[in-house]
Amino acid sequence: MTTPSNPLSLNRRWKPIEWVLWAFALVAPLLLPSHALIINEIAIVALFAVSLDLILGFTGVVSLGHAAFFGMGAYTAGLFAKLVMPDPLVGLAAAVVTATVLGALCSMTIIRGTDLTRLMVTLGVGLILMELANKLSWLTGGADGLQGVVMGPILGKFEFDLYGRTAAWYSISVLLVLFVLSRRIVNSPFGATLKAIRDNRLRAMAIGIPVTQRLAVIYTIAAGMAGAAGALLAQTTGFASLDVFAFDRSADVMLILVIGGTGWLYGGVAGAVVFKLMQDFISAITPQYWTFWIGLFLVVLVMVGRDRLLRPWTWFSRKAGST
């Protein structure tokens, strides 16, 4: 008699197409050397989007201040390189730890209250950190930003080059490692409880799931991943400005998840690819009005639907049962 397969273990298995996609991502800086810089940006934004999807798509917690952790990671990595040591991996670890601690502290504010309360609290945290970075100009550079961040070679061998190929491989590698970690989390029993909380919090509490604890843990993990994305930005560009805390950055990552889809880790990656390529292409044509066209695309996406937009031959098909 055969035992039934565990759905969670089946979801953890990698499909052949996934191996192909990640292999292409790793060789992309070599195949497209002139586009290495935008590949690096896509990897960073994708990691940021995946971190937000852990709390938004899989847990149902809406946040408008996720940039707070992104910015904390960026400034921590930049200051660590300037004041302590320029090793990228050690600086990345320091940024993740700092953002994780901040996430643990902020998790106390999101486990209570309504969705509107959480929106305001998360937004407020980001604004507070942005103002602190502005006032502490002796440390952060204030409105001029943190400049002169010089990174050492990765693993003592791979120097950052002007073309951005090393930066792209570095960011893609970190994205892959944290994506695998996220995949393990959402396809574990812990991840199943997160989905139960997202679908019906009261029912999850009734069956004995420690909702408050689960929310705090996943929020802290997501904060650490967002901090890693911010650290990658500071390390690969050698600069960190107040923009990393801005509301626009939180809004952009929200739009990325709208494009790619929530509750699906590849949604953050796909949304980042589409968003950054559209931004790069449209801004090259019309630098002043590129946001208009991206906004129009989002309106069409919402009105038509993501599935139907990808299958245009269904736009004019009759609904089932219609005469």
What order do the helices and strands follow? HHHHHHHHHHHHHHH
Structural class: mainly alpha
Total domain count = 1
Question: How many strand segments?
Answer: 0
The quaternary organization reads as single chain
Mean pLDDT: 82
Name the beta content range.
under 5%
Properties at a glance:
323 residues, mainly alpha, ABC transporter involved in vitamin B12 uptake, BtuC, 15 helices, 71% helix, 0% strand, globular, disordered C terminus
Layout of helices and strands:
Blueprint (H helix, E strand, L loop, with lengths): L6 H6 L3 H16 L4 H21 L10 H17 L4 H23 L4 H21 L1 H4 L24 H22 L2 H11 L1 H6 L4 H27 L9 H14 L4 H21 L4 H15 L1 H5 L13
Helix pairs in contact: 2-8, 3-8, 3-11, 3-12, 3-13, 4-5, 4-6, 4-11, 5-11, 8-11, 9-11, 12-13, 13-14
Notes on the protein architecture:
The chain is built from 15 helices and no strands. The protein has one domain (15-312): ABC transporter involved in vitamin B12 uptake, BtuC (Orthogonal Bundle), CATH 1.10.3470. The protein has helices at residues 7-12, 16-31, 36-56, 67-83, 88-110, 115-135, 137-140, 165-186, 189-199, 201-206, 211-237, 247-260, 265-285, 290-304, 306-310. The protein starts with 6 loop residues before the first helix and ends in a 13-residue tail after the last helix. The protein is an all-alpha fold and 323 residues long. Helices cover 71% and strands 0% of the residues. Mean pLDDT is 82; it is low at 312-323.
